Amino acid sequence: MTAALRVGAPRTGRAERTVDGARTVVHTVGDPAAPPLLALHGLRGSHHGLAPLAARLPGLRVVVPDLPGFGASPPFTDRAHDVAGYARWAAALLRDLGPGAALLGHSFGSVVATATAATAAPRALVLLNPIAEPASAAGGVTGAGTRLTALLHEGAARLRLDGVLRHRLLADAATATMATTTDPLLRHWIADEHRARFGTFADVRSLLEAFRAAGSGSARSWAPRVTAPVLLLAGARDRVAPVAGQHALAAAFPDARLVLLPRTGHLVHYEAPAWAAREITGFLGGLPGSPR
C-alpha cells in the first residue's frame, strides 16, 4: 500500500445532532479528551475526504461534519447554502466545541472557515488548498473550465437532470483536474473516492446554491478580519487555487504563514496527508498555551 494511504485505525465516533437548527451528521476522530479541531470539507465532498488527514492527528480531537446538503447531512431548511449560511452554522458548531477549538477548511471549506473565523475567533485557523480568488474570475484553462462546469450545473438543474450531476464522468473530471500524483495506486484510490462521494449531495437545489457560492467566493475577502494565527498549506501545482494567489492571500491575513508542497495539486489531504499532519501538529503545538 502506498505510504499516503498507510495508517492505523483511529478512534472514531458518529453522531447526528442539531446545529443552529440544522440536522448534522458529525464524525469525531481521535481522543475525546484531546484539544478539538473542527474540519470542514470542500464542495461535493463529505467527511470521508478529510479522514486520511484526521487519522494522522492523534494529539487532536478532529471533528468532521458533513456540511448540510452533502454526505449524510440533509440540506438547510431555513437558509441558502452559501458562505453566510454555512459560516453561521459552523460558528455554532465551533461554539459547541468550547473555548480553545481550532478550525480547518479545505477548498470551499477554506472560504467557509475563513468567514467563520472572521467572527467566531477560533484558537487558530488552518487552510488546505485555500481559495484565494473567485473561480469565476480566473483566466486561461482554469477559468474556461469553471465556466463550462457552471453551464453544466445550471443547465442540468434547470432541466432537472439529477443523474447528470451524479455521473461518474464528473467525478473522473474532478480527479483529472485536482490530482497530480504519479503514484498509480494512490491515483486509482483518489478516483474511487471521487466516484463514491461526488454524487452524495442531497438535491440539485442545495448543490447549485453551494456551487454558485464556491464559484463567486474566496477566503481573501474575509482574511483581514481574522485575528487568529493562520497556517496555509498549498500545492505548488494546484490548478484550482494557483500558487500566485496563495502568496497574496497569506499577505491579506494579519498573522499568517504559507507552506507550499512541490509536485502537489488541489488534494493535499489525499496526496500528502502525512506532510499536512506534521505541519498542522507543529503549528498548533507552537501556539501560546499549547501542551508540551
TrEMBL record:
Which residue intervals define the domain AB hydrolase-1 in the entry? 35-273
**Where in this chain does the entry annotate a coiled-coil region?**
none
Keywords per UniProt: Hydrolase
Q: Name one Pfam family in it.
A: Abhydrolase_1
GO molecular function terms listed in the Swiss-Prot or TrEMBL record: hydrolase activity
Read off the InterPro entries from this record: AB_hydrolase_1, AB_hydrolase_fold, AB_hydrolase_sf, Epox_hydrolase-like
Entry protein name: Alpha/beta fold hydrolase
Originating organism:
Pseudonocardia kongjuensis
